[in-house]
Write a structure and sequence with these properties.
- 42% of the residues are buried.
- The chain starts with a helix and ends with a helix.
- It folds into two domains: 288 residues, Rossmann fold (3-Layer(aba) Sandwich); 187 residues, Adenine-n6-DNA-methyltransferase Taqi, Chain A, domain 2 (Adenine-n6-DNA-methyltransferase TaqI, Chain A, domain 2).
- The protein is elongated, with a radius of gyration of 26 Å.
- The strands form five sheets. A nine-stranded mixed β-sheet has the order 3-2-1-4-5-7-6-8-9. The protein has a five-stranded mixed β-sheet with strand order 13-17-14-21-18, with no helix packed on it. Strands 12-22-19-20 form a four-stranded antiparallel β-sheet.
- By secondary structure, the protein is of the alpha/beta class.
- β10 and β11 form a beta hairpin.
């Protein structure tokens, strides 16, 4: 059956412009991925009728995959499916595909297609408001590939779910939240979604709701970012998750990984303690892939401090250059101050000037200027394919005595003291931390986007300030900024 559904889907993809599909955040699941997702459910052997929800159903690939898996197990005798879909371009295809399944499935199959907005149509129910259904329909299992699309803060979908929205909302986590709401107690949900929710600051309220109402049981990772969706250009990291609607925390989470969306024959598996995977007050989700990464987390988590705890903080660079073109200068002139970019970070130190365009600014805007003092600069945008995610450089004010103030482009971050200026020892100590292998590994486990996020860095464990100073003194004494030397010195303090 699924081959026929895939064939119809591919015809639709070929005929429908990508721009049109993007309006709905549509990215279609491959056959292999759909079958893998459908196989993750744990259906009781005595369960003969199964109620299923597929929100944002698209062409029905996931629903079909689930029916095929269920009929192969020969325990479930009847599937009652509810689909939500609002895209008029694909509704006929979805309807035809579901009718095809009904006529060809080896088990009894009934379906309903709801064309109302999945989120706003349940607004009253979700918020337990007057006029809502006091006993809304609940499902045994939920499966989905929700739309991936940012929406305005005041979009109807965002205002319908204030409990999970903070900052810039995305439809995918609203669908995931509503999916949990739609589940019966002890029901299971399998979703394929971006990784960004696992640590992003804008997803804090979502994580709180999602990981309180349900518990992670299985996470599947794809090694390649660009081989998850066929015929699509999706470069954000995507994961498959299985959660159970329960208050009981499991002892461990299964973490699997494959190279791509059609390589499920070669899946690696790791079982990690739940408290290692889901950790901290912000409920970050750490995506470990082997025992070494578990040990990295456990080792650094023993340190017990964060940058703000010890009077330090990472901040984002001040100047958005393309929004301030009128103040940019290629060469120094009277009143000009240096504008530092990520390109100025070279081999562990900050080099200026480098004969780059727009290296100077002339401005009276206080918000674009910062005191010329010691900092650790950290590149804000790096990719998982690069050798290091954390790339930093020591900035010492004494090298630029002619300036009282400087500016930083917003594609770099900098660590500053909250009350006092950083000593040279502290700057070099911080450099040793963030240039070490263990800290780079920790951040790779935590973050799956291309942005080195200051909120995440400020939540990472660090030694107490006195130890950072000691580490810095040793770096200065050795005059060796290499990763190997940072590792050697750090080993004395982090074990």
């Amino acid at each position: 059956m699924i081959d026929s559904i895939i064939e119809q889907t591919n015809l639709y993809i070929d005929e429908m412009p990508k721009k049109e599909r993007k309006k709905y955040g549509q990215f279609f699941t491959s056959k292999e991925t759909a079958m893998y997702m459908a196989g993750l459910f744990s259906i009781a052997e005595d369960k003969d009728t199964l109620t299923v929800l597929d929100a944002g159903a698209g062409s029905g690939i996931l629903s079909c995959a689930l029916v095929e898996v269920l009929q192969s197990k020969k325990t479930v005798k009847k599937v009652s499916l509810t689909c939500y879909e609002t895209d008029n371009n694909i509704l006929d295809i979805l309807s035809n595909n579901l009718e095809y399944i009904k006529n060809n499935a080896e088990i009894e199959f009934e379906y309903e297609i709801i064309t109302e907005n999945y989120i706003t149509s349940q607004y009253l129910d979700f918020n337990h408001m007057i006029g809502g259904n006091p006993e809304p329909k609940k499902y045994d299992v939920v499966i989905g590939n929700p739309p991936y699309m940012k929406i305005p803060k005041d979009a109807p979908e965002a205002t319908a779910m204030p409990e999970v929205c903070y900052g810039a909302p995305n439809l995918y986590f609203l669908f995931a939240s509503m999916g949990i709401f739609n589940l019966k107690s002890d029901g299971e949900m399998v979703y394929i979604i971006p990784r960004s929710w696992t640590s992003g600051a804008y997803f804090k309220k979502f994580r709180e709701y999602f990981l309180t109402e349900s518990k992670l049981e299985h996470i599947h990772l794809f090694v390649s970012r660009n081989k998850v969706f066929d015929k699509e250009d999706v470069l954000q990291e995507t994961i498959i998750i299985k959660v159970k609607k329960t208050q009981i925390q499991p002892e461990e989470v299964v973490v699997t990984s494959s190279q791509s969306n059609n390589d499920f024959e070669n899946v690696t598996e790791l079982r990690a303690p739940y408290g290692v995977i889901v950790s901290g007050v912000d409920k970050y989700v750490y995506l470990v892939t082997d025992q070494n990464e578990i040990e990295v987390l456990e080792k650094l988590n023993r340190l017990g401090h964060t940058l703000p705890d010890i009077g330090l903080k990472m901040k984002t660079g001040l100047t958005v250059d393309f929004r301030n073109r009128d103040i940019l200068r290629d060469e120094s002139e009277e009143g000009a101050i240096p504008l530092f970019y990520s390109q100025h970070i070279q081999d562990g130190i900050v080099i200026f000037p480098i004969n780059k365009e727009h290296e100077y600014v002339v401005t009276d805007q206080k918000g674009l200027k910062q005191q010329n003092k010691n900092y650790l600069f950290v590149k804000r945008f790096t990719a998982k394919e690069e050798r290091r995610r954390l790339q930093c450089g020591v900035y010492l004010s004494k090298k630029y005595p002619q300036y009282d103030v400087i500016s930083t482009q917003n594609k770099i971050n900098f660590i500053d003291g909250l009350a006092t200026e950083l000593s040279e020892c502290v700057v070099y100590g911080l450099y040793a931390l963030f240039n070490s292998t263990i800290y780079d590994s920790y951040y790779r486990i935590l973050n799956g986007s291309t942005q080195v996020n200051s909120t995440e860095i400020n939540a990472m464990p660090v030694p107490e300030l006195g130890i950072i100073q000691e580490i810095g003194r040793k770096i200065i004494k050795t005059k060796d900024l290499s990763e190997a030397n940072c590792n050697r010195i750090l080993e004395e303090y982090c074990g």
